[in-house]
Amino acid sequence: MGLCLRPEMLRGGHRVELHRDGAEAYPRMLEAIRGARASVFLEMYIFAEDAIGKRFAETLVERAKAGVDVRLMYDAAGSKDSSREFFGELRSQGVKVVEFNPLARFWGGFRFRRRNHRKLLVVDGRVAFLGGINIARDYASTADGGLGWRDTGVALEGPCVADLAAMFAEIWTRERRRRDPPIVPGAAPAGEGARVLVLSSQRYRDRWEIAQHYRHAIRQARSRVWIANAYFLPSRRFRRALREAAWRGVDVRLLLPSRSDFAPVLYAAQRLFASYLRAGMRIFEWPGAMMHAKCAVVDGAWSTVGSFNIDHLSLINNYELTAVVDDRDFGARMESMFERDFAQCREITRDGWKRRGWTRRWLELLCHPFRTLF
In the annotation, is 54 catalytic? Predict the structure, then answer.
């Protein structure tokens, strides 16, 4: 309990299922949508107009035609490559669709940078899916025609599902700007199971809440802090918490991508690798396709999975969503997943990092000063 910043807000009675990637998450999400009887609320940063997106679109339309209240909210910037006709067809088939923060209306202003980076599916107020996995072929397995990006998500059943439905409703009502039937969160019964807290940064006063929970758990850690993050550009206070944990003898490991969909972020992040290694942290580079996960486990008890990148955009600009799970059984599953990932990675050593080429060093120097803009 000491690992959680707000232990009084943890709610018991949850079933938590861990999804290692899109190959595990997509079938379960589609199955849940197909079984919907009352409502489907889907909120995505990227809803791509590709084979995966069309598969989800067909399933949403089928449920809408069956009389289910189907609502889709997508981010205008994240889904900019999907055509208006694609979403228009969904509307014409009975799906209620909202575009978050349209680009043309606020181009170039501060509001343009305010993006909805959350990934959330709530079905019948009974089950919710969240994490870092968007609806796009990037996250599907190569066997299914995807790119096999490494990511992490969870499915939740229990009292926090109602909280997630309410979080969706708040943004939906603000962006929709017209009357819809009100969203009434389901009343999932509490029983035995994991203690969970869901955190969202959709309100400005909660902007730093997720990072504060991270830092508190790191400061309280006694044995292990294992973090996987796609765009790892932590604040000074976050870096200090990690260094102090490593100095206490905590096993601090960072699972980071070796390649990125936006190279300047990767170079900016790597500028700090030498300081992490000097402090005693261990760095593991994911060797395959993009490592897009945003998750962590501390002391095998405190875990988090969500959309929160440890960078300036997630801290200040974006709407983010994460689940904090206080449960040793789930923590053991998280550690097992991390160990499987570490075994596939290349560990960076201090001597090896010193031997990197001057081209890489110059790219790091060039990109790091702009880290708060990415």
Answer: no
Answer yes or no: is pLDDT of 374 > 90: no
**pLDDT over 80 (residue 101):** yes
The CATH H-level (homologous superfamily) assignment of domain 194-370 is Endonuclease Chain A (3.30.870.10)
Whole-number pLDDT of residue 6: 94
Catalytic residue among 21, 138, 163, 299: 299
* Angle between helices 84-92 and 51-65 in degrees, nearest 10: 20
Nearest to 120 by CA among 30, 23, 42, 38: 42
- The domain locations on the chain are 12-176, 194-370
Is residue 216 part of the annotated active site? The answer reads no
21, 294, 327, 341: the active-site residue: 294
294 is a catalytic site residue = yes
Alpha-carbon distance 270 to 277, whole Å? 11
Distance of alpha carbon 341 from alpha carbon 226, whole angstroms: 11
Residue 117 is among the residues annotated as catalytic for this protein? yes
Out of 124, 311, 326, 327, which one is annotated catalytic?
A: 124
Catalytic annotation, pick one of 69, 75, 292, 311: 292
Of 119, 213, 216, 326, the active-site residue reads: 119
Query: Percentage of residues in the chain with pLDDT exceeding 90?
Result: 87
Q: Per the CATH hierarchy, to which homologous superfamily does domain 12-176 belong?
A: Endonuclease Chain A (3.30.870.10)
Q: What is the per-residue pLDDT for 282?
A: 98
